[in-house]
Amino acid sequence: MLRGRLIILRVRIAADRSASAFVIACRKGMEYCIPVMSRSTPSSARSRLPVRNGTPPARVAASPQPAIERIETTSSFKHKAYLALKNAIVAMDIYRSRSDIRLDERKLAQDFGISRTPVREAMAQLESEGFVRSVPRRGIYVVRKTKREVIELITAWAALESMAARLITLNAGSEDVAALRSMFTTFQDGELRAHLDEYSEANIEFHQSIIRMSGNRVLIDMAENLFTHMRMIRRKTIVEKDRIDRSIRDHMSIVEALEKRDTARAEQLVRDHALGLADHVEKYADYLD
Q1: What are phi and psi of 138, to 5 degrees?
Q2: Contact 239, 142 (CB under 8 A)
Q3: Do 132 and 94 fall within a single domain?
Q4: What is the C-alpha separation between 30 and 37, in angstroms, rounded?
């Protein structure tokens, strides 16, 4: 028993000597040593680090903090810039001329009275939607669709709008359908050509209304961006050949089929009307190539 206690005492003495030697070595200039601290060492002493070249190191934060990102204050500016640019592009007759339409980011920012960052972000969104394209070392240009691309757009639109017509005959209210007919009462009795610009807008609203009246949220969302491209094409083609007269006749036939809830006929008429535009582009829209 006595011998065992002596062994334990010797181990403790050896450990104390090793600890003392470690502390002395640190004090003699071993900079990266961690000081030994007893249980009685106050917490403030535990945070002290060795001095290097007479300059104390910077204090380390006591506890980690969450990474807080600055609140994005330009998001509303980005959205407004996006809408303004998109509306401006759609309102342009981009197919009248073959000249490139270049957008000046700096000038747009000045005109909007905002920084270039939200304008740049708006441009990126418009590029993802196919309205502009970025050319390295040259700038950003408004996109003109090729003839083949336009025909593909119209074909996809024909599928969506004909399904919308089908859904209208099954679900839409009579008052909503009657509102479609009222869109064209102004353009009867020879007044059509005198109000060409107004008819062009009524034509666009007619097709938008058919999509909206379907009541199918997925279909409406799919058609939204597609129709923005279609709008620019319809504005250009409505004045070509005999498209005006054919357009109003087709519209009245479509409204009649919807009023009668003739699902198959309404669906077919809407599809044929859209594909008729595709045929027109194929035959006459050489300016797209």
Answers
A1: -125, -40
A2: no
A3: yes
A4: 16
Per the structure, the count of domains in the chain is: 2
Q: What is the CATH number of the domain that holds 259?
A: 1.20.120.530
What's the confidence (pLDDT) of residue 161?
Answer: 97
Per residue in 123-157, is it b (16+ CB within 10 Å) or e — as a string? Answer: bebbeeeebbeeeeeeebebbbbeeeebbebbeeb
- 59 pLDDT tier (thresholds 50, 70, 90): low
Task: Name the residue among 35, 16, 15 with its Cα closest to residue 25.
Answer: 35
Per-residue pLDDT of 225-264, as tens digits, reads 888 888 888 888 887 887 888 888 899 999 999 999 999 9
Looking up residue 138, the CATH number of its domain turns out to be 1.10.10.10
Side chain identity, residue 205: E
Q: What is the mean pLDDT of residues 139-156?
A: 93
Least confident of 98-107, 186-195, 263-272: 186-195
* The residue type at 25: A
Q: 78-133: per-residue pLDDT in tens? A: 888 898 889 888 888 888 777 888 888 888 888 888 889 988 999 999 999 999 99
Residue 6: inside a domain, yes or no? no
Question: Which domain, by its residues, includes 253?
Answer: 147-288
Residue of 268, 248, 266 whose CA lies nearest to 168: 266
Of 205, 167, 168, 166, which is closest to residue 183 (Cα–Cα)?
205
Tell me, yes or no, whether 204 and 220 share the same domain. yes
What secondary structure does DSSP assign to 10-79, as a single string?
Answer: HHHHHHHHHHHHHHHHHHTT-TTPPPP--TTS-HHHHT----BTTBPPPPPPSS----PPPP-SSHHHHH
202 and 272 in one domain? Answer: yes
Task: Answer whether residue 246 is part of any domain.
Answer: yes
Same-domain check for residues 252 and 155:
yes
pTM of the model: 0.68
